[in-house]
Amino acid sequence: MRPLSNGDFRLDPRDRGGPLQPLLIARDLRKHFPVKGTGGKSVKAVDGVSFTVRKGETLGVVGESGCGKSTLARLLLHLVVPDAGELVFDGDLVDTRELPVDELRRQVQIVFQDSYSSLNPRMPVRDSVAFGPFVQGKKKQQARDIAGEMLGKVGLDPDLFGPRYPHELSGGQKQRVNIARALATDPRMVILDEPVSALDKSVEAQVLNLLRGLKRQFNLTYLFISHDLNVVRYLSDRVLVMYLGRAVEIGPIDAVFERPLHPYTRALLASRPSMDPARRIEEAPISGDPPNPIDPPSGCRFHTRCPFAETPCETTDPALGIWEGPQSHVAACHMHDVASGHSRLAYG
Amino acid sequence: MSRPATCTMWPRVTAGWLMAEPMASGTGALAEVSDLTVRFVTREATVHAVNGVSFRVQPGEVLCILGESGSGKTVTLRALMRLLPPRRTQITGTVRVDGHDVLGMRPRALRDLRGGLVAMVFQEPMTALDPVYTVGQQIGETLRRHTCCDRRAARARALELLELVRIPSAERRLDAYPHELSGGLRQRAMIAMALSCNPRLLLADEPTTALDATVQVQVLVLLRRLQRELGMGMIFVTHDIGVAAEIADTVAVMYAGRIVESGPVARVLQAPAHPYTAGLLASTVHGQPRERDIDAIPGSPPDLRRLPPGCSFAPRCPRQTADCRRAFPEPRFPELDHMAACFAVMGAVGVPS
Asked: Domain coordinates of chain A in residue numbers?
């Protein structure tokens, strides 16, 4: 097993809890969006998700569309207010007197997937980058200086690109501006919500390299959301697998990729194209699409597509197990629970 | 290759206007494109989207056009069906499909061609399907346009097609509107519609890009099976090397409106000859060690309004020389069926017999 990459992590002067206190603890986060015209039904976008993000690590979050990963990103910043659950940032409970939401947003920033719609089209990108520090109390000139410096850090010449408007930049350049904008307020943690999904492969590689470099340089902690498992494996230390609003597996990246516990994780991994025409996928690992999150299946939400589903899977919701440990590798599956009554416990 | 029994009762449509076209081209190729250029002309600028593309597709062959956004892959595909806006587009070169000259076709013949001889599967099934008609109605419309069968026969055939593309409870789905289907089922319905008149050539424009990973592989496996069973030729456009590796027989890599490398999929992906193909492979994340940076291609693709002279990839190329900026390299053949347009490639120069 790869040693946890906490080695080169330097403690921040703003640190409160010490190196062992996780930077972020999410406990039983829940967000249901009511849907009009369905008689009070709701989309269970995030339905009881718990995890920790340790200082200096990158936690990858993977899952298919509709599994709640983007809602999760917004919940962590209170861009969408959770219905239930608690967030603890470096030992302080978020949205209380200990850590008000705007104080949280000084320390946690986000980069969205759509690089164009997350920049103001009527503002030169330099001003977009300067906006954060300015709002947080810096003088106008100071904020501009920070913006110039940040544009330089993400590989854009501030004199050449700073005065341009978003529509004058390519997708990769816009995403670099968004990264600069996120870093301009000097955050400790950055949430990356599919930051490279809309980019071409040759540009994607450049941005991934940039993100790696910035993490080291600014001593950052990342939450990296993606549907591309190869990218997640390259960038993350641990990974959280989501399915229909639930966390189904969490663990160190190599453990999850080499010995996946949950049948869904195994199907996701087996669905990756092989990159080798001689070893093509002959049969799809699982059939069907993810079900509608308005009416998720009873019991284990994956049982409708799971090749190993049995009676307990249809009736009882499997628990994730002890997820708090930095090395714990657990899955919410009855096949890993001796008391569940499932006939196949071979994987445990 | 034999067709499954369900399809034999439906003869391919060659009635009417298409028959009047002369049968030419002695190569036996199903689709033959030579020296295709496409320009989009507006008052401000001229976009050189496709700059001299030539390729052939044999019956039963899958050609994958691989390229990044703006490489001209989708425009090339659309030119095969003449789906580009006629007022603003200048097309030169020749496009032959099954012997028919597509670029010289009259509008009536073109309508027979589209959906009959050649069919297309689009990237976004939600926008390609009409939201106010049921899936069954839309498949039936295509059938009745091309085969003069009645409503009931069209419905029976539509049901058959939904079963062919493995849509569960097909009978019920026939009367479903597109928004009532999941993404994967919508794409299957669109494939069913494309297959309805037994096309000889199927064009697929990133048909799996909008789908989830577990659904993408289902659709790829399905398309490959159908293509083999029905003996269709297929041109498949994608930006994803992994998808190309799953489905292609031959690959054509496009950059700035030109094919820079082409050949059998295994050779192109395992022994890429062109620096751009090699760079694209290296920058696609697939199990590289985490400790090192990815070998990214520096810079960004050129502006198609102001293409530099010579090789378009030269400004980003690790192997560029002064020659590269002067002229576009003529095709070279490191292997008999493997082409790369690059001065640095060793091999026979020119067009093989």
From this structure: 24-340
